[in-house]
């Protein structure tokens, strides 16, 4: 297995301890969870960069990268929702968008149309990671940044929604060409 794919798989594996550490109350554990999250986020950047540099871009790697991102991000948002730091509607929107876009991509693939990842999807992931960092800071430091976190939730929601619309419109454009 290639190094980029191992990095991607590590993100899936790292999700387990970081969720467990965050879910159980002591602030010290949340600090360890945050540290693991930073490491996992760095692997998200490195896996693709290394795959391109080492000429090891693969279908498996592209698949695992999407899955590992969704496992990591969704798991953390669910925990933050359970501990009362993020709103249900945002978690619902993230899960709905990711599931719908994955379905659209599978449908397109079954029709021989490839809808590649794009900058809007990457921007969505980065915006979600930024929000997660501030949620961690809120838990670890007890800073009262609730208003800022609420604003970030709305920004992330809009970016998440917009990126989903971009994928759907890309599918519709490509499927129209095939007819």
Automatic annotation (TrEMBL):
Membrane topology category: Multi-pass membrane protein
Compartmental location: Membrane
Protein name as catalogued: CDP-diacylglycerol--glycerol-3-phosphate 3-phosphatidyltransferase
Gene3D superfamilies the UniProt entry points to: 1.20.120.1760
InterPro entries: CDP-alcohol_PTase-I, CDP-OH_P_trans, CDP-OH_PTrfase_TM_dom, CDP_ALCOHOL_P_TRANSF_CS, Phosphatidylglycerol_P_synth
A GO cellular-component term linked to this record: membrane
Residues passing through the membrane, by range: 7-24, 30-50, 71-96, 151-172
GO biological process, one term: glycerophospholipid biosynthetic process
Family designation: Belongs to the CDP-alcohol phosphatidyltransferase class-I family.
A Gene Ontology molecular function term of the record: CDP-diacylglycerol-glycerol-3-phosphate 3-phosphatidyltransferase activity
């Amino acid at each position: 297995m290639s190094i980029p794919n191992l990095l991607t798989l590590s993100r899936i594996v790292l999700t387990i301890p970081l969720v467990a550490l965050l879910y159980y109350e002591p602030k010290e554990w949340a600090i360890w969870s945050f540290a693991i999250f930073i490491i996992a986020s760095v692997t998200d950047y490195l896996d693709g960069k290394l795959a391109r540099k080492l000429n090891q871009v693969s279908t498996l790697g592209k698949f695992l990268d999407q899955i590992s991102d969704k496992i990591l991000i969704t798991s953390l948002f669910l925990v933050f929702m359970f501990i009362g730091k993020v709103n249900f509607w945002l978690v619902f929107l993230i899960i709905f968008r990711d599931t719908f876009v994955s379905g659209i991509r599978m449908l397109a693939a079954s029709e021989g149309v490839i809808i590649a990842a794009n900058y809007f999807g990457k921007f969505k992931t980065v915006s979600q990671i930024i929000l997660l960092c501030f949620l961690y800071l809120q838990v670890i430091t007890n800073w009262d940044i609730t208003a800022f976190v609420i604003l970030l939730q709305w920004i992330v929601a809009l970016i998440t929604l917009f990126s989903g619309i971009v994928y759907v419109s890309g599918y519709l454009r490509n499927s129209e060409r095939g007819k």
